[in-house]
Amino acid sequence: MSSDWSEPLAALRWHWGQAYIINCPGLGTWIAERRDTHETLRDETPLGLRDKIIADYAARPVSRDLPDQPGPWSRRSQPRGEGPEADGLTLHG
């Protein structure tokens, strides 16, 4: 990906991709779908979506044993030392 949102998207997927299906179909549209109930969270920014994911997960944790989200930052497919954290891609706000 070479878009303005590819790094935050990769970071969100790295941290939360086992519990949520996370997408950004365009700037200003950030979506996370719970893998268990398929309920959807939306926000205009990646940090806003991250905050909603954290609140949702704290209220009702999602099993991390659900099928993994396909993509380059799938936690299960990354050897240790690779992925967004290795490149400094984190969403701490």
Topology at a glance:
Layout: H1 6-16, E1 20-26, E2 29-34, E3 40-43, H2 46-59
Antiparallel strand pairs: 1-2, 2-3
Feature tags:
93 residues; alpha+beta; 2 helices; globular
Give a verbal description of the structure.
The model is unreliable at 71-90 (pLDDT under 50). The protein has helices at 6-16, 46-59; strands at 20-26, 29-34, 40-43. With 93 residues, the protein is α+β, with helices and mostly antiparallel strands. The radius of gyration is 12 Å and the shape is globular. The protein has a domain at 6-61. It has a 3-stranded antiparallel sheet with strand order 1-2-3, covered by helices on one side. The protein starts with 5 loop residues before the first helix and ends in a 34-residue tail after the last helix.
Q: Residue-averaged pLDDT, rounded?
A: 78
Count of DSSP strands: 3
Basic shape: globular
Following the backbone from N to C, one meets helices and strands in this order, namely HEEEH
Q: What is the count of helical runs?
A: 2
Quick description:
The protein is an alpha+beta fold. The protein has helices at residues 6-16, 46-59; strands spanning 20-26, 29-34, 40-43.
